[in-house]
Amino acid sequence: MSKKHKRQVSRQAPRPLPTLTGKTTEFNPDYSTTKRELRRIGILAGIFFAILVVLAIFQNQLLALFVK
């Protein structure tokens, strides 16, 4: 059911955003620590992947040692 009476909404003009006077800032982030951490993660992932490949190659020999 719809309402019979519509209420009027007063619309106000949006207020302008405050501006910085005389100051210009440039966004210049330092990603050196992020690069270092990503490099470390990549190296660790490569090492773990190499370990998995070696274990897969020698899987039968390793199982024979433990199943005796």
Helix and strand layout, with pairings?
Elements: H1 32-57, H2 59-67
Features:
single chain; 68 residues; mainly alpha; 51% helix; 0% strand
Task: Please describe what this structure looks like.
The chain is mainly alpha-helical and 68 residues long. It has a domain of 35 residues. It has two helices and no strands. The longest helix has 26 residues. The mean pLDDT is 85.
Q: Specify the biggest β-sheet.
A: none
CA-CA gap between termini: 80 Å
Q: Tell the overall outline.
A: elongated
Counting helices, strands and paired strands, the structural category is: mainly alpha
- Whole-number mean pLDDT: 85
**How many H/I helical runs?**
2
Identify low-pLDDT runs. Answer: none
Q: Give the helix level as a range of percent.
A: 40-55%
What string gives the helices and strands in order? Answer: HH
Report the C-alpha radius of gyration, rounded.
32 Å
Number of strands: 0
Give the strand content.
under 5%
